[in-house]
Design a protein that fits this description.
By secondary structure, the protein is mainly α. It has helices spanning 15-21, 24-27, 31-47, 53-72, 84-96, 109-145, 165-190, 209-215, 225-230, 233-259, 287-310, 324-347, 353-361, 367-376, 381-398, 407-413, 420-425, 427-432, 442-454, and strands at 150-155, 158-164, 192-193, 220-221, 267-268, 350-351. The structure holds arginine.
């Protein structure tokens, strides 16, 4: 088979080399973007009278036909045509003949692939932004409908202080909000046109880069043609954003896994989001959460993979850059799927409110409350902390909790302690005393929900 670049070669390519060199298995994902980019390029060639109008029209019609055929029945691509760009050109050649050869006038595969990747990244990042937003809406819904649930808050995975479940859950809303902001901000670096930069130096034809920029809805044109064809920062940046999202999901996943363990039993996942064991009949496993936690590792491997590929590359295009796609495509799709799956898992999960309430009444997460109560009696906080600590120690020895301590024992600590101490120690009161804007009181969390809703 003749290569599109075969002119200066006397010998055919070694078969192993051909297979090693080919990227079609991966970059066929760029089919739509490649057609879009080529149509814009050819429209420009026509407008600038670089190729005759009729030739441009037959190329454009041919490309549109290929697009339609591909939508009905995926086209067959060949490894011997290396990548998606050359495959499309060969298919166009079969369809319209020699004139297909005019499509590549004033263009290189270097600005072509860069254009495809910019279009692809923009479209996928928009899709990811939507998926995150949908997940954030679910989080707000679940937070609203469980506003009355109090859970123990943890530090060091040790019971710390009572908090609203909604307050805890909304933490993930705010992480995802930062993720969404970062993605939205990155669009200004993604949506830039490299088309017209040629192989690296620009082109001798009287092209109109601003015209293709506007046809493809890019916001600007790269100021430097060498940078345009060798820049992959926007891909790495998106992968870094993806890594942060996956890291957030992984932390959330870890909590879900803990919460549905027998030991916690705070939540029950829907059967639709769980799996069983082939040997242990009693098992219901949180596989989705575990997979997402695991995939966050895979995705960060891709990020490092691309970073290492880029490090040390001389300008401008080098074939190493072909490696960007498999890292990027897999990381992107994994992230979009993980956000979707997590969304469904949280939407269908149920809270085991009685278990949670029982847990909260059998711990020392109200110990800070006792110290704060003593402060109201004018005891310095450090002293109050020590007195409470001593009492907690006694309780542990006796196997009781602070609400079980008789008033006489409290009064032995300080004569002014009265019955009100028991109200003070109750989780709901502990929560509702924390009225700062970002705190855990019902009022505060309702305010935070309002803020969250305004962002959706
Ligand atoms: N398949 C190539 C890639 O993804 C397209 C660009 C090829 N350019 C070249 N000069 N060989 O990087």
């Amino acid at each position: 088979m003749n290569k599109l670049w075969g002119g200066r070669f006397e010998q055919g390519m070694d078969q192993k080399v051909e297979a090693f060199n080919a990227s079609i298995d991966v970059d066929q994902a760029l089919f739509t973007q490649d057609i879009e980019g080529s149509i814009a390029h050819v429209k420009m060639l026509k407008k600038q009278a670089i190729i005759p109008s009729t030739d441009a029209d037959s190329i454009i019609n041919g490309l549109l036909e290929l697009k339609e055929e591909h939508a009905n029945q995926p086209l067959t691509f060949s490894k011997s045509y290396e990548d998606i760009h050359l495959n499309i050109e060969m298919l166009l050649h079969e369809k319209i003949g020699e004139v297909a050869g005019k499509m590549h006038t004033g263009r290189s595969r270097n600005d072509q692939v860069a254009t495809d990747m910019h279009l692809y990244t923009n479209q996928k990042v928009q899709q990811l932004i939507k998926a995150i937003q949908a997940f954030q809406s679910t989080i707000v819904q679940v937070a609203k409908s469980n506003i009355d649930v109090i859970i123990p808050g943890y530090t060091h995975l040790q019971r710390a202080q009572p908090i609203l479940f909604s307050h805890h859950l909304l933490t993930y809303f705010w992480m995802l909000q930062r993720d969404r902001d970062r993605l939205a901000d990155s669009i200004k670096r993604i949506n830039i046109s490299p088309l017209g930069s040629g192989a690296l130096a620009g082109t001798t034809y009287p092209t109109d880069q601003r015209y293709t920029q506007s046809l493809l809805n890019f916001d600007d044109v790269y100021p430097n043609s060498i940078d345009a064809v060798s820049d992959r920062d926007y891909i790495l940046e998106t992968m870094n954003n993806i890594n942060l999202i996956m890291m957030h999901l992984s932390r959330f996943a870890e909590e879900i896994i803990l919460w549905c363990s027998h030991e916690f039993n705070f939540v029950t996942l829907s059967d639709a989001y769980s799996t069983g064991s082939s040997i242990m009949p009693q098992k219901k496993n949180p596989d989705m959460a575990e997979l997402i936690r695991g995939k966050s590792g895979t995705v960060s491997g891709h990020y490092i993979g691309l970073l290492m590929t880029l490090k040390g590359l001389p300008l401008a295009y080098n074939k190493d850059l072909q490696e960007d796609k498999q890292h990027f495509f897999e990381a992107l799709q994994t992230c979009i799927d993980s956000v979707d799956i997590f969304n469904g898992m949280i939407e269908t999960m149920t809270l085991n409110k009685t278990v949670i309430e029982k847990a909260l009444n059998n711990d020392f997460s109200n110990a800070t409350e006792l110290a704060d109560y003593l402060v109201t009696l004018n005891i310095p906080f450090r002293k109050a902390h020590e007195l409470t600590g001593l009492l907690v120690k006694q309780c542990i020895d006796k196997g009781i909790y602070l609400l079980d301590v008789p008033l006489s024992t409290y009064q032995a600590i300080h004569s002014e302690i009265d019955e009100t101490v028991y109200e003070y120690l109750k989780p709901l009161n502990a929560v509702n005393r924390r009225q700062n804007e970002n705190g855990t009181s019902t009022q505060s969390v309702l305010g935070q929900i309002k803020k969250a809703e305004a962002l959706l």
